[in-house]
Each structure stands twice: as C-alpha cells, then as structure tokens.
Design goal:
Strand content: under 5%
Oligomer: single chain
Number of strands: 0
Largest sheet: none
Helix content: over 70%
Distance between the termini: 7 Å
Structural class: mainly alpha
Amino acid sequence: MEPRITISWLALIAIHVTPAAVLFAPSLVEQLYGVSPNAAAGVLIVHRGSMFLAIVAVAALAIIRPDSRRAASLVVAISMLGYLIVYARAGFPAGALRTEALVDAVGVIPLAFATWHGWRGSRM
C-alpha cells in the first residue's frame, strides 16, 4: 500500500483516539469538556466515545483492508463534516468545541486524500 494512504488513515485515527478514550476513562470528560461524567451531558459524551471508537476501528480496518475504504471514508466523513456543520450552526462557540472544530477542519485534508484514493478505483 502507498505510504501516503496509510499516513492519512493514521492521522484520522489520531484525531479520533482522544475522544474515544473517554469511553475507557470517563474522568477525561471533565478535563476535555468541563462537564461531569455523571451529568446527563457527560453520559452522552461518554457514549459519544463509543462512536469515536467505532470510527477508529473502521479507519484501522481501512489500513489493512482496501476494500473497506469506501465505507470507512463515508463513516469518517459523516462524523467530521457533520460536526463542522453542527458547530457552524451553533455560531462557532469558543472553548473545547472550537478546538475540536479546528482539529476536524485540519483533518479534512487526510480525509479528502483517503476518500479520493478509496473511491477512485483499484489503481494504487
């Protein structure tokens, strides 16, 4: 496999590992988002960690299974672009949400590269 494709998927994994970690370490919710992990919003954020773990898993699968790249790129794109749209609709709030938006915005670059390679056919 072309190293640039692997690097793109690894970058996408790196973006999603920290928010996925809250599933295993709920105390991170307070550190990252300033919300108690036992509050209603905290519980939702911890559950959100499981969704990010799923994104990490499909991105890892895309590294070893080229036939999964189209589906993986869709899942990651829905998550990242969806967040950016929701963030913009909320009026670009400051704080941890802005940091996440900036990381996702930068992550669009490896996402675009991985998506283009996943959808352009089997020429790699």
